[in-house]
Write a structure and sequence with these properties.
138 residues, alpha+beta, Diaminopimelate Epimerase, Chain A, domain 1, five-stranded mixed β-sheet, 6 helices, 5 strands, 36% helix
Length: 138
């Protein structure tokens, strides 16, 4: 991997796409448009998250809260990295309520979290994890 995120396979795919006549910047801009509810949710997360003494930042995002901001769970999950730049934060955790499960998004800049996440079925990288728990287990 180059720069930790881009693999040679990705670069090959980008090279193939560049043969087509499209404007990637325009596509990027369209994909990154955010609603006012999204911006308000981002602000609410920044104001209401908690941090433990060990440096774990976390927030619970319920269906009610997300519907109040008119943001779906997938869009909200992308905000997990917002907390990673906060002072004293070593690990970020989003608890996102879905109709039949709770999904976790866990990020760390330094600490390996793969072992913890694997116990709950997570299979991602050393510093990024996504997990699910059925309501019966929680």
């Amino acid at each position: 991997m180059l720069n930790g995120t881009v693999s040679p396979r990705t670069l090959t795919a980008v090279k193939a796409l560049r043969k087509f006549h499209f404007q990637p910047e325009r596509t990027h801009d369209e994909l990154n448009k955010k609603s006012s509810g999204f911006a308000r949710l981002l602000d609410a997360i920044s104001r209401t998250f908690k941090v433990t003494e060990q440096g774990v930042a976390y927030i619970y995002l319920t269906e009610e809260k997300l519907s109040a901001y008119r943001v779906d769970q997938a869009a909200a999950a992308n905000l997990v990295n917002v907390l990673s730049s906060m002072a004293r934060v070593r690990i970020c955790v989003f608890y996102i309520k879905y109709p039949n499960e709770i999904r976790f998004r866990i990020r760390s800049r330094i600490i390996r979290i793969d072992d913890i996440a694997r116990r709950f079925g997570g299979e991602r990288t050393l510093l990024r994890q996504a997990l699910r728990l059925d309501h019966e287990k929680s």
